[in-house]
Amino acid sequence: MSADRVPVRAPKGTNDILPPGSFRWQELVRLAQDSFERAGYAPVETPTFEDTALFERGVGETSEVVTKQMYTFEDLGGRSLTLRPEGTAGVVRAVIEHSLDRGPLPIKLNYASWMFRQERPQKGRYRQFFQVGIEAMGTDHPTIDAEVIQVGDSFLRAAGATPTLLLNSIGHLADDCRTGYNRTLVGFLRDHEDELAPEDVKRIDTNPMRTFDSKEEKTIVVMASAPVITDHLCDACTEHFAQVKGYLDDLGVIYTLEPRLVRGLDYYTRTAFEFVWSGLGSQNAMGGGGRYDGLAEMLGGNPLPGIGFALGVDRILLALNEEHSSRGTREQEGFQGGPKVEVYFVAIGDEAAGEALRLATRLRLSGIGADLDHARRGMKGQMKDAARSGAKYAAILGDEELAAGQVTLRDLTTGEQERISITDLEARVRTG
Ligand code: AMP
């Protein structure tokens, strides 16, 4: 076979989202956007690619996402561009660029976007993946931390997931807070250097807190007795964290304190959280977020404290599927996500096919999902298509019906059917 006849396949680490799964996928994204918008987070869209410097400065040059995983390329004008590996840096850039920070605060935004990271693909870890997220910028009052976390938690629960919420505060960069703690941690890691995995030794000076994220067994054992940040927070960060916990308690949001939780990206300060589900195996995080009070300045803007989260849609769907198959239930409680066709027209003959197209169009324009046969299949084949479409009704148009200006409306769940006038069809379907 010549090279141009070899079938082209999707790039490694990418997925096609096909029906029927694509319905659930879309529905989950819509549920996220609705939940976020109901809490006042307006939609925002930013470019899929950005100046590479945005992520180097914003996400941080010591984070793995920047050093190893970015899709960076030069365009024809010689600019270095990068497919976004995460959503926050682009949103904060847009806020600064368009001076939204000079308007009413906080600025509350939500996004639903593809992200790109060159990772080693495995279950739940892809090179192109979809995140939904929110960002709240312009205040560091702990009520907003609690709001952001509650909005994420309630969306996941509305989707039918039962995540565990891990919560921590990682302080801020000051000698009496995280900077001082980092020195203590580096001392501890140096003292245990020969017990750590070689990969983790390399990171001691550049990003010591990431050692808590190591998947290496040897390192995990050492880190169990490492000093933790929450014992080294300054008074202001301790107080901030206490208030965040207090508000979450008020809201009935259940969390587990995890002093070893550090987030992968460099810009985080104070509140850090993650939603995990043990059934996902090694890729157990559905999403997470935290406060990023210094990010706007890193990007050249005025000080603008912020907090947000990103949740992985691919991962949430995996979790839902596994959680429900282990419970033996087929449908999720929270959202259905299925075809939107209510009436499927079964038409015998050309004249009936034309009438079916007219009637289906009329129903669609009035807001009722409708579909029809376009392949001139026989009655049996069309009835099968009707069942496959997920429609509640088959509307059958044969010679007799046509002559009488009627359709035979068959309820596909009960099998009951009745002849009704074409003019009554819409009202009949609406009343159910
Ligand atoms: P992060 O920005 O790394 O904190 O990721 C937030 C969430 O996005 C994770 O918890 C996952 O649900 C999802 N996510 C991150 N990276 C990937 C990936 N490579 N493939 C699929 N989902 C991902």
Quick structural summary:
The chain has 432 residues and is α+β, with helices and mostly antiparallel strands.
Q: Work out the strand percent.
A: 15-25%
CATH level-two architecture of the largest domain: 2-Layer Sandwich
Largest sheet: 8 strands, mixed
In the predicted model, the low-confidence regions spanning at least 5 consecutive residues are none
Helix content: 25-40%
> Biggest sheet, strands in spatial order?
1-5-6-11-10-9-7-8
What is the CATH H-level superfamily of the largest domain?
Bira Bifunctional Protein, Domain 2
Count of DSSP strands: 16
Rounded to the nearest angstrom, the distance between the terminal CA atoms is 56 Å
CATH class of the largest domain: Alpha Beta
By CATH, the topology of the largest domain is BirA Bifunctional Protein, domain 2
Overall geometry = elongated
Cα-atom Rg, whole angstroms?
27 Å
Structure class: alpha+beta
Q: Look at the structure and give the mean pLDDT.
A: 93
How would you describe the overall organization of this protein?
By secondary structure, the chain is α+β, with helices and mostly antiparallel strands. The protein has 2 domains: about 260 residues, 2-Layer Sandwich (BirA Bifunctional Protein, domain 2); about 90 residues, 3-Layer(aba) Sandwich (Rossmann fold), CATH 3.40.50. The strands form 3 sheets. Strands 1-5-6-11-10-9-7-8 form an 8-stranded mixed beta sheet, with helices on both faces. A 5-stranded mixed beta sheet has the order 13-12-14-15-16, with helices on both faces. A 3-stranded antiparallel beta sheet has the order 2-4-3. β3 and β4 form a beta hairpin. The longest helix has 18 residues. It starts with 20 loop residues before the first helix and ends with a helix. It binds adenosine monophosphate (AMP). The site of adenosine monophosphate (AMP) has 17 residues, from β6, β10, β11 and α11.
